[in-house]
Design goal:
- This protein has 235 residues and is mainly alpha-helical.
- It contains eight helices and two strands.
- A hairpin with a 5-residue loop joins strand 1 and strand 2.
Length: 235
């Protein structure tokens, strides 16, 4: 019972400090507003993309819900890293490969909103910054890496690298956002950026590898039940 309670504390209790989701009120108001404004066009385009997907095939609702649930569960699995920070998988690569990047912007924004409201993971004022790193940059990297490596004809490699690099670039973006908001007083923003990268790297790189393998397995299972599924469906 004590072991289960420790696990519960690790994964459920909100963590403070620098996490992959930037916590509520942590960014200066100007920075929080900037990331909101930058995220809006991707979100709006994603709404149109989802509308087109459902218009062409209404049966895709279940699969959209599944990839959103996949991202919610994986990105809620916080694991403590060094210096009191935490890391987690993102889960957005799977949806980006199946439906395209901006579809995952909308689904990722919904996931981040619910996590902020229900789990105190992230925040409302920092939602724009978290959406930009996890629901825009991550899916875009996953989508284009998948497209690029599919030219080799090796789908397993393409899926693994798409999920792996999508996860890594999410944490690189979060590090940049934090460094931009809190540059080192002596050495400037890029020094601060290197420090944040170092904090996350210890735990995030192994997590990205695990996410890559998990995405390969889950996508293979989906394709076994739906052999006619066209991947990367965003136009």
């Amino acid at each position: 019972m004590r072991f289960l309670m420790v696990l519960l504390l690790i994964f459920v209790v909100p963590s403070f400090g620098f996490s992959m989701h930037i916590m509520e009120g942590f960014l200066p108001p100007a920075h929080a507003t900037f990331w909101y404004i930058l995220s809006i066009p991707f979100f709006v385009y994603g709404l149109f993309a989802i509308r087109r997907i459902l218009k062409e095939n209404p049966k895709q609702k279940m699969l959209l819900a599944f990839v959103a649930a996949f991202a919610f569960v994986l990105s809620a699995m916080k694991i403590p890293s060094v210096t009191g920070s935490c890391s987690h998988p993102t889960g957005v690569g799977l949806g980006a490969i199946i439906f395209g990047p901006t579809t995952m912007t909308v689904l990722g924004a919904i996931v981040l909103l619910f996590q902020a409201l229900l789990l105190a993971h992230g925040g409302i004022t920092t939602l724009g910054a978290n959406v930009f790193s996890m629901a825009i940059v991550g899916p875009l990297v996953s989508y284009f890496v998948y497209k690029l490596f599919m030219k080799t004809g090796k789908r397993t490699l393409a899926v693994f690298l798409a999920a792996f690099l999508g996860d890594l670039f999410t944490y690189v973006t979060t590090s940049f956002q934090l460094a931009l908001a809190f540059p080192d007083k002596s050495y400037g923003m890029w020094y601060s950026f290197a420090k944040f990268l170092g904090i996350f790297a210890v735990t995030q790189i192994p997590l990205a590898i695990i996410e890559g393998f998990l995405t390969v397995v889950v996508l293979d299972m989906i394709l076994k039940y739906n052999e006619e599924l066209a991947l990367g469906g965003e136009k």
